[in-house]
Structures are given as C-alpha cells and as structure tokens.
Amino acid sequence: MAQKTNVLIWKVVNGVLNPTPTQQSFPYSGTGFYYSVQPDDTGFVGASTGTAYSGINLMSGSFSETFKTTSGSVTTDCKTIVYKGRKYIAYVAFVGGKHVFRLVDYTTASTAALESPILEVTGAAVSNANNTIDADFAVINGKLHVLYYGTNDRLAVYKLEK
Which pTM value belongs to this model? Predict the structure, then answer.
C-alpha cells in the first residue's frame, strides 16, 4: 500500500493458513512508494526509502526497531535466509546513481553488522536507473546463490563459497 505503513501478517500453523491477518505498522512514517518487510526467526527485517528513514532495519515481532543502518542508503527490497547456521540479508542500495549489491551476515545482530557487508559490488552510473530493485537467495546443489537486480542496469548471480 503506497504511502502507508500498514503491514499485514498471515500465519501458518501446522501447515494451515489462518485467513485473518494481524496488522502491524512499519516504524517509520513518511515512507516512500516502496518498502518491504521480511520475516526472520526473531522478528522482521525491513527495507525502506522515505523522508523519515532510508535503509535496512531489524525489528522485533511487535515491529519495535532493534537495529538499523545509519548511512541512509535508498533501498526498496531485501531478502533473508538462514544458511548453515548463519543469517544473511541481500539487498540492492541505490547510491549516487549507481546500484550497489550488498550481502550482510547479521547472525550477531547489530548496527555494525548491518553496515559491514561481506559482499559489496558497485556498478557503473546508470542514467535512467531507479530504486525499483530486488535481491533473492537460492540453494543450488548445496551452494548458496544470491541474485541481484537493478532496474535498467543489470541482473547478477553470485555463488558463495569459502
């Protein structure tokens, strides 16, 4: 819902969907047209662009902010995964007319963890790029892969190995 902070949450218990969602509020007013929320094992991860806040934030199950980036990077989507006991966030930031692909290990949640990507790839300036961006994870043949997309820029897939 553009320009709103409502987040609807449907729960699945024992494989059965509760058809009545609960409603929470994203903790920042003045969000732009885009923000997303992903569940994780301790609450939620948010990605947002707006006048009150732009960046990645961690929230409790009741949507209270626990940690957030302070850099003000514009981003509209993120994905989370737990892989081999580690917690990761993949997202694309839009900084200075360039898409920046980032992967964060937030197993030990903190602002420092959110602001210290273990993978950061900055592309060239794109004259008609925007903040319609995406990232996703897949485990293929036992290896973690992360996909990044920047509108009018590129699509990239990385296989993560030690």
Answer: 0.89
Cβ-based neighbour number of residue 78 at 10 Å: 26
Contact 92, 152 (CB under 8 A): no
Distance in angstroms (rounded) separating the CA atoms of residues 131 and 3? 15
HSE of 160, CA atoms in CB hemisphere, 13 A: 19
DSSP classification of residue 74: B
User: pLDDT for 80-98, tens place per residue?
Assistant: 999 999 999 999 988 888 8
Q: How far apart are the first and last CA of the chain?
A: 40
Strand-strand pairing, 6-9 and 22-25: antiparallel
Pairing outcome for strands 16-17 and 12-13: antiparallel
